[in-house]
Design goal:
Order of helices and strands of chain A: HEEHEHEHEEEEHEHEE
Distance between the termini of chain A: 23 Å
Shape of chain A: globular
Number of strands of chain A: 11
Oligomer: homodimer
Low-confidence stretches of chain A: none
Structural class of chain A: alpha/beta
Largest interface: A-B, 39 and 39 residues
Strand content of chain A: 25-35%
Mean pLDDT of chain A: 93
Radius of gyration of chain A: 16 Å
Helix content of chain A: 25-40%
Amino acid sequence: MEDSQKGKESMQALKDRIRRDGRILPGNIVKVDSFLNHQLDPMLMRDIGCEFRRRFAAEPVTRILTIETSGIAAALMTGLAFGVPVVFAKKHKSANMAGSFYTSAVYSYTKATMYDVAISSDYLVESDHVLIIDDFLATGNAVKGLLDIVSQSGASLAGIGIVIEKSFQDGGRELRAAGLHVESLAKIRSISDSEIVFED
Amino acid sequence: MEDSQKGKESMQALKDRIRRDGRILPGNIVKVDSFLNHQLDPMLMRDIGCEFRRRFAAEPVTRILTIETSGIAAALMTGLAFGVPVVFAKKHKSANMAGSFYTSAVYSYTKATMYDVAISSDYLVESDHVLIIDDFLATGNAVKGLLDIVSQSGASLAGIGIVIEKSFQDGGRELRAAGLHVESLAKIRSISDSEIVFED
């Protein structure tokens, strides 16, 4: 099977899965606990990693960057597909963290609080070409925090790969308007009457 | 190459990596931020998943169980090797969590605090045969919390797979004395004068 055909099918599988298993909560929140946020489907995650590899094939990616916890599975499989290390930003500085860190403040829309994301300067360097991977893109606050950290490190950006984008919120539009290469595997155009509608 | 030979080599690679990259902190804490706890090495994680598959090959595993955050990478790759879903226990009940949960209280030795671990009853059922995977085993408190949850669900236990066991602490000994099948890929016998000594 051709690569792009295979990618199309696995991303159709992702949309089917969101439609079947996604639960809609107040505030336009889509919960996909059965395969992405609490339980993980390793085979779907592997397909997602391969699809990100295909979509960013032109980029000489040296490192994958994500945020704990929900970004880790897709990022790990993308790192496997590219054969490069994966770094996950920590949300809370822990007692065991030592040395020098890049940090950025992020506003969580779903939790209505600010938190810091932190990455050790050992694992993001100026010569890196970084692909950011995350599970959701809505307001884009988490991704903007990661972009800030990439910028602090002096590394270059390959692009941003998102599993599920809520395209009715502004994050994706803003990032693309800034000239960034954003690839979202499933774009939710609207959530209405308990129904999830995808783009195209 | 024979499966067991390949497994032996990849686990030697794990020990070499711990020896080379592990940093020893006060309180016998070993930090392996470069491949397991902050940055992840996807290829090593894949080999670790394959090795757990080999060591528990006799078990009809239906689900992998771990705890966020550091257990997720090894658990995901083990799930991929077995072709079964992975569930990670959450450490903090979030606003988005709804429905029925199994919970257990865990004492964190490194953070000197109690926390709850929670798993939705949707993702652990009586007919499951569960393999627990975690990054570290020391006092065994985190694993005991997961065992409590497995017991609450009525599921059966395939065993416990650990990436790094500190065999100078009591957790592994207690779990084996209770008749449980524990497999640790690297066993640290002692940490002295900034040197890590493995069991062999």
